[in-house]
Amino acid sequence: MYSVNIGEENLSIEVQDQGFLINGQLVQMDIKNLDKNKVHVIYKDKSYIVEFVRFLEEDKSMEVRIGNKTAQISLKDKNDLLLEKLGLNMKSSAQISEIKAPMPGLILELKVSPGDEVKKGDVVLILEAMKMENIIKSPGDGTVKAVKAELGQSVEKNQTLIQF
Question: Is 113 helix (H, G, I), strand (E, B) or coil?
Fold first, then answer.
């Protein structure tokens, strides 16, 4: 299963033997690779050449051209969707606003205080869960506005720990 964003539209796509299940409806189309950046698509008796202009692997997005129109597409596969559902999608972003607990646990160490500058990958706290120490790192650069957790505190999954 894939989640595909084309502009503001979000589509759920599953590949099946009979065709594609798009937002719960079976859609049949014929797709043939022309070369590594182009495919030929026949959909509802119309022919389209789809050219993959650019692919950004770090955020799984691409620019495609169909005829003389271009579109920005972002993709999420089943693993991305599962990580997002579990609250573990700590993607880097230019602007971070908070760090949430990825799982229930106990705060063992706090490595930052309000006003501290952090860089992507800096350790901000250590969370004990199921007798294991989990190092929680900053997903991006920012200045700590507030620390919402205390040393020795039990926290729940998705509870806000640090605000930027």
Answer: coil
Q: Is residue 27 part of a domain?
A: yes
Within 13 Å and on the Cβ side, how many CA atoms surround 48? 18
Whether 87 is covered by a domain: the verdict is no
Instruction: Give per-residue pLDDT as tens, 9-23.
Output: 888 888 888 888 889
Sequence-separated (6 or more) residues with CB below 8 Å from residue 15: none
- Cα–Cα separations (whole angstroms), residue 19 to 31, 53, 79, 135: 10, 25, 22, 43
Q: What is the CATH number of the domain that holds 121?
A: 2.40.50.100
Whole-model pTM over 0.70:
no
Please give the Cα distance from 111 to 122 (Å, whole number). 9
Name residue 21's beta-bridge partners. 14, 26
Where among 79, 113, 134 does a domain terminate? 79
Q: Is the pLDDT of residue 92 over 50?
A: no
